[in-house]
Design brief:
Keywords: Cell wall biogenesis/degradation, Glycosyltransferase, Membrane, Signal, Transferase, Transmembrane, Transmembrane helix. By secondary structure, the protein is of the alpha/beta class. It contains 27 helices and eleven strands. The protein folds into two domains: about 375 residues, Spore Coat Polysaccharide Biosynthesis Protein SpsA, Chain A; about 210 residues, no CATH class. Helix 4 links the parallel strand 1 and strand 2.
């Protein structure tokens, strides 16, 4: 850290001196050197300094669940599980139902376990899927216990053909296939018709969707299973299962996922009021049924419990191809950096796989009061008339008006990344968190397997992170004061992630234009200062590679990860920065987008074969194509000039050639899609032509800029 700091300081001093000299020459010379100084200030100073928070005191923990007290002799705290779904077209209801079934099958006392499903898409098919899942649970849960199954999502379990070797497993798979067929048929029809219902009560329930509009409808809450009444086929109590679609009106803000989670907090506070709350994404199923017991190791530790806000498990993804070409596991954010934060005040909340303390989220708030003291507290039985009347009131879209929900209570509003913002605010309030990363992943889910979806997801994150970075709760000021300097820097690294677009674009364009114009911006290969550039590059990349591999990653996946970092720099980070700036200027943008969990068959085949998919005419791909073509053209021009003029060109322009060649090597999948592929995943013709035109335009402008250099 010390040596690298000195190297950065020397480089910045040189850049400053060059800028001072350039200011006496032409305006274009000043612009070029200022751009390099600004890029180095961000890349090698600010962002590097923030990243050191993760390396200061990394911690790895191990739990011993077998030491927990026997739940038959000592009461374990109750557990509420929240599963959120936003769009049934992108989040298939059957897959979401499988996730909920895996949560119901956790190794936890059934009378202490409640699963709540928030359907923000307001889909009757989603409710039907969970009604089918409630019926299937009577067979699936005892099957899991008897077989000792670890993957308790039926979707994941039956994905392997060797799981149906005995008659009982075959029967269970037939039941699950029948359930999927029923839900699939309803999905195709777009509604639940009479032939899908088994009683007049069910028919009456689905009649509520007549005249139903997704963003304009009353709340619908249905208790599908009650632990004190419902039993499985072995006469064992089943966990509570509750479906909820909160009220929505066009005139009332709904605050996206944070709003949905806060409704679940209030409703569950009335129905079950468990002191521990598990939040999971709809595609994240339980891969280890004992994960709640690992969390209890911390919540029942008297030295940790009073100040423990949440226990965060990492996100692990199944179905990634061998080299993870889209960097979908996001290893640095979800694992490596979390070890570092765990040595400070704790990891950040990543939105899923997290066990929360209800007290940390709600404080001394009584779940049945909206802070106006106008209602008497009431904790009722699940499904009773007084309880249902009260929870409908709490799911109303105007319930939070005049309250502190979203500001100091519950999940926090004010950012599209409500998980990051909520964890940050809790840490600033004095709470701590813990990172648990057992050898067997506690949860498994799906990462975006489309390049466009992956880039769009990161763009949304950048917008939400900037909303925190440029608020009065900025990590660099508010966080450093109220948590610690190191925590402020760590959170600041994420909050300002979007500004990576500045150094990445600068180094992807400026040295290449200088190479074509034969204007040197860096020291010659024969000069001693070249060792400074080499050290800064090799030390940064070498440390990144070492940390990636030491955390369990492979070299091939690291290459994909650093390539995606550059790709996001000229797409997600840039467009996210622009969208945030437009939002601040009062110009509306897209807002919240749900990442699709569904894939077309051809798209899946390309992904499995590790072939990049560029089949959409997206502005993302225009910038990628432009950058790739410019670097290839400049590299060819530099090599050609060296072959014609002599070795002196290599000496003078070595760093420029290296940068152009390094970026071109990372762009090989882009060149293939631009010029050589004929499948549907190739770069669309209009994108290719636009990219060629823009690359030519940049070369022309660069020539003019450097001619006056």
């Amino acid at each position: 850290m010390l040596v690298y700091s000195v190297a950065v300081l020397v480089l910045l001093c040189h850049r400053t001196a060059s800028l001072a000299a350039a200011s006496k020459n032409s305006f274009s010379s000043f612009v070029i050197h200022f751009s390099l100084l600004f890029a180095d200030s961000i890349l090698l100073s600010f962002m590097w300094a923030c990243s050191q928070a993760f390396r200061w005191r990394p911690v790895r923990r191990q739990e011993f669940p077998h030491r927990l007290p026997d739940p038959d002799l000592h009461e374990w705290p109750a557990l509420d599980v929240f599963v959120c779904i936003a769009d049934p077209r992108k989040e298939p209801p059957t897959s979401v139902a499988s996730t909920a079934l895996s949560m119901m099958a956790l190794d936890y006392p059934a009378h202490k376990l409640s699963v709540y499903v928030s359907d923000d898409g307001g889909s009757e098919v989603t409710l039907f899927a969970f009604m089918e899942a409630a019926r299937f649970a009577r067979y699936w849960l005892p099957f899991c216990r008897e077989k000792g199954i670890m993957e308790r999502s039926p979707d994941a379990y039956f994905a392997s053909p060797d799981r149906c070797g005995d008659s009982e497993s075959q029967k269970m798979k037939m039941m699950f296939d029948a359930m999927k067929e029923n839900v699939g048929s309803a999905m195709e029809k777009g509604c639940v018709t009479n032939d899908f219902t088994v009683s007049a009560e069910e028919r009456e329930l689905f009649d509520k969707w007549k005249g139903f509009v997704r963003n304009n409808h009353p709340s619908i809450i249905k208790v599908l299973l009650k632990s004190d009444e419902d039993r499985d086929i072995t006469n064992t109590p089943l966990p509570n299962l509750v479906y909820l679609s909160r009220e929505k009106r066009p005139s009332s803000p709904h605050h996206f996922k944070a709003g949905a989670l806060n409704v679940l907090l209030r409703v569950s506070g009335i129905m079950s009021n468990a002191p521990i709350v598990l939040t999971v994404d709809c595609d994240m199923y339980a891969n280890d049924p004992k994960s709640p017991q690992r969390a209890l190791c911390y919540f029942l530790d008297p030295s940790l419990a009073p100040k423990l806000a949440f226990v965060q498990f990492p996100q692990h993804f199944e179905g990634l191809n061998k080299h993870d070409i889209y960097g979908g596991e996001i290893r640095r954010s979800f694992r490596i950096n979390s070890y570092g934060l765990d040595g400070l005040r704790g990891p950040d909340f990543v939105g899923t796989n997290c066990f929360h303390s209800r007290h940390a989220l709600c404080g001394s708030f009584s779940p049945s009061s909206n802070l106006t003291n106008s209602k008497a507290p009431y904790i009722g039985f699940i499904g009773s008339e007084p309880t249902m009347a009260q929870v409908h009131d709490m799911a109303a879209c105007d319930y939070e008006l005049g309250t502190k929900w979203g500001s100091t209570l519950g999940f926090r509003y004010g950012s599209l990344v409500e998980d990051y913002y909520t964890g940050f605010r809790l840490h600033c309030e004095g709470w701590e968190s813990v990172f648990s990363d057992p050898a067997r992943p506690a949860f498994l889910g799906d990462a975006p397997k489309s390049l466009h979806d992956s880039l769009s997801q990161f763009k949304r994150w950048v917008v939400g992170l900037f909303e925190v970075a440029f608020s009065r709760y900025s990590p660099l000021t508010f966080g450093a004061r109220n948590a610690s300097l190191a925590m402020g820097l760590g959170y600041g690294y994420y909050a300002f992630r979007g500004i990576w677009c500045i150094p990445i674009l600068t180094y992807a364009l400026l040295p290449q234009l200088a190479l074509v114009s034969q204007r040197s911006l860096f020291p010659k290969a024969s000069e001693p200062r070249i060792y400074l550039c080499a050290y800064l590059f090799l030390a940064a990349y070498g440390q990144d590679l070492a940390e990636f591999v030491m955390s369990g990653g492979s070299v091939a996946r690291w290459w994909s990860d650093q390539r995606m970092w550059m790709i996001r720099g000229v797409t997600s980070f840039l467009f996210g920065t622009i969208e945030f700036a437009l939002n601040q200027a009062g110009i509306p943008s897209q807002g919240f987008n749900v990442t699709s969990k569904a894939m077309e068959e051809e798209q899946r085949k390309r992904y499995d074969n590790e072939v990049f998919d560029f089949g959409i005419a997206s502005p993302f791909f225009i910038l990628l194509g432009t950058t790739a073509i410019l670097n290839l053209a400049s590299f060819i021009a530099g090599i050609t000039r060296a072959a014609v003029i002599g070795i002196g060109v290599l000496d003078e322009m070595f760093v420029h050639l290296f940068l152009a060649g390094f970026i071109a090597a990372n762009c090989l999948p882009i060149y293939e899609a631009l010029f050589f592929r004929s499948d549907e995943g190739k770069m669309p013709r209009n994108v290719t032509l636009t990219s060629i035109f823009l690359a030519g335009l940049l070369l022309y402008v660069g020539g003019f800029l450097f001619n006056t250099y």
